[in-house]
Amino acid sequence: MSADRQTLKVYDTQAAEYETRVAQRSTPGLSEFITALPQSAYVLDLGCGPGLSARAMMDHGLTVDAVDGSPAMVARASELGVSARQELFQDVSGTAEFNGIFANFSLLHMPRCDMPDMLNRLHTLMKPEGIIHIGLKLGSGEARDRLGRFYAYYQQDEIEALLTSAGFLPYAHILGAGEGLDGWSSEWIVIQAKKVTNG
After folding, report:
1. At what angle do helices 156-165 and 115-125 cross, to 10 degrees?
2. CA distance 100 to 103
3. Which range of residues forms the domain containing residue 31?
4. Which parts of the chain span the membrane according to its record (predicted)?
5. More confident residue, 93 or 168
6. How far is it, in rounded angstroms, from Cα 121 to Cα 23?
7. How many structural domains are present in the chain?
8. What pTM value is reported for the model?
9. How many helices (H) does the chain have, and how many strands (E)?
10. How far is residue 104 CA from its own chain's centroid?
């Protein structure tokens, strides 16, 4: 999760409401992400929230390393039997560890200027042919919602170019719109891409 204190405070104080109003909906692209991975794959759930997607991946036989910057979200995920821990985006590190990275509407809380470096680091974290899933809100620039959460917005061609520059090959996307925790409807995109390795 982002280190933005206002954003983290919202998730800490409204974790239960977020789970009920947002996280319990079906997760676009989750089943496709699971299907694309090898059996018993090792997955990083980056910004796991209350852990519902991590639990679903575990139920399909995947091993999930679930992290979130909000202690309240980590606690809710742990109640589902998810081995979750508190960690911020900038603290995630490693080399060739994961078959998949699931960043479902989490990296949108990170400043746009940090996205290229973050994607490079995630590329390093992944094993050859690894799959990344990213959910973002469509738009431009940066802003806070009426709850005070920080958001960075992207256009489809923009995030695809950033993924390509970081060494990923985008191969699927889903477009949609829906109401968030703040009660406003936003357009969004989910993109899935494969790690490209040289040689």
Report:
1. 50
2. 10
3. 5-195
4. none
5. 168
6. 26
7. 1
8. 0.94
9. 7, 9
10. 3
